[in-house]
Amino acid sequence: MNSKRQTIWLVSMLSLMVILSAYYLLTGDKNTELLADADGVTEASAGGDAHGSDHSIVLKDVGGSAGSGLGAEDTTSNTDQEVLKQLAEQGTAAVSSDYFSQQQFLRGEKLQRESEQLLAIIADTKQKPEDANSAFEQLHQLEAKEDKKSEIEEELLAQFGDVIIAEENDNYKVVVQSENLEKSQAASILDLVSKTMDVPAEKVSVQFIP
Questions:
Q1: 139: closest CA among 19, 39, 4?
Q2: Rounded CA gap, 38 and 167, in Å?
Q3: pLDDT one-digit tens code per residue, 171-189
Q4: What is the rounded CA–CA span in Å between residue 35 and residue 49?
Q5: Where do the domains of the chain lie, and which CATH numbers do they carry?
Q6: Looking at the whole model, is its pTM more than 0.70?
Q7: Quick check: helix, strand or coil at residue 205?
Q8: DSSP H stretches of helix in the chain
């Protein structure tokens, strides 16, 4: 049993290395510029600017009825608000690309944290075999989800300046860099994410940053 557990653990470690290597290759060197901790940043509205500057980064919803996935109310999370506040405080240096870089960094941290938690369960010889197998399956699903999100982002990068997909409790928020976003474009993105991630359209929202 221990030998089998060690084999599973080694395979899992290799899987994690592949996930993280692929992720950081895709995100490039942008993450290295974002090591500043976002903790302690006060909450602000998506369109707010504490200093009255015109250079704040604003997440804009695509017009649509609430729950449509195109622009439901209150789709900006607390994490988004903190990042937007941080960028607004940087004044003219705050450009939309900083938002995407910060989000990529945060997503990488989340991926690493979740992977490490699952690997700890797999490596723990005190765990029941079924628990270890469950953790291994979750790790595989995590890898598959990340691959799908990366595929969607790569496809959308052909149309937009930058793209990031954020996930929270199986809800997906797609943010693209664009001066404007037509409803037809948002509907196309929604359909792509819904089919690729195998989730209802109600669980997908689309926003854009100029």
A1: 19
A2: 19
A3: 999 999 988 899 999 999 9
A4: 23
A5: 85-208 (1.10.287.4300)
A6: no
A7: strand
A8: 2-27, 78-88, 96-123, 129-156, 183-197
